[in-house]
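Board work, copied verbatim: Carboxylic ester hydrolase
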Amino acid sequence: MTDVRVSCPAGTIVGVTDGDVTHFHSIPYSDIPGDFLDAERLPPQDLIDARAYRPGSIALTVVTPAGARELADLPVIVYIHGGRYEYGTHGDRRAEGTPNAHAGVITVHIGYRVKLAGLARFHDDEPHHYRGIDDCQLGLEWVQRNIESFGGDPTNVTLVGQSAGATTALWLTRRDHYRGGFRRVMAMSPCFPRASFADRKGTLRMALGKPVTRAALSRMPARALDRGYNRFRTWYAMDMALGPTPLDGRELADIPLWVTSTREEFYHIPAGRKADSSRLRERLARGLAKRMGMTGSFDTWLAAAREIDPRRIGGRLIGDAQNRRWVSQTAEEAPGRVWMSEFVRDHGPALHCADIPTVFGLEPGPSHDLLLTFARGEELPWPEFDADGERTALRINLDSGETTLVNDPLKMVREAFGSAAP
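↓ predict structure ↓
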């Protein structure tokens, strides 16, 4: 590995290259004066050592073709990791940027604060403001100021998020947040809490044994804070304990949007597996359906679920309630052009996160070429979701690589869960 230096408005950044791909690891992009305080733009630094990955830092990583030069105007993909707003960093190996670099596309991974430091809300916070999401906004602003020096085109940025990262990407697309830092969005399996932080604040207060104030949480030892949070999250094991809410797709900016889901999403959640091991799985699912946000006919949803997999009713209910309902709602409500994809498998269920490596080219399949097409601003090669009212989606088989057009694959979800928007 050889050192590489790039001079940009943020300072002189030292990365490493193997002669093929160049990595700039863990670049600081913000100044965080306190865990529960808003981050600020980091002033320029003289020299930034970006030769090693530092997983504990709130930072970003840039991956470029080795030959990339300033003002080369290469497309840029910015990736926001998932992790239930509880874990994950800017070094998600499942979305590593080397295959993109081989195709002449720059990849930026943005890390952000998670758990209460990033997602708790206090009485003086602005509406719809979350520190972890604001961290990502600062990261996008860093990209706008600096990516030209790495060879990227700041006017051709595609924002990609998976799970909680997709939730963040959609939240940053709201008209009250959107600042033009990206031209299009790919949202993979987004997930929104079914209730607001305000509704759950009392539960958090009991779990922590402290007032939910900036001052009180700042004084708590880290271990005590983690123990309290872990007690809190157990109340929402089949939901997002934290996160922005509610989703209202009508509030999104009018930009191209590609939304995706895996067909089985959360079959592997222990609660679902336990329920599905019982002969009473359908009765258990019926008892949970309303609690998990179902507003339509359970019997209609159940009939569709049986056709897909009669042995995994509980697991399907969890995935539909946590992810696929938000994919459906986003596609139905977004004001701009929308494309939808659904990932399936021949051999076993297509689980949450199984699509990440193939989308980023680390595993074989057509998805990476589709991502590159989207990132270059070219037309995706299947009809828009709502063209002629057909609700067309591209079904992608993660095992065979086969793609097929399907009409309205999330009909059962749309009819069962409807919209959470007021």
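Residues 33-42+67-190+249-417 form a domain with the Rossmann fold fold (CATH 3.40.50.1820).
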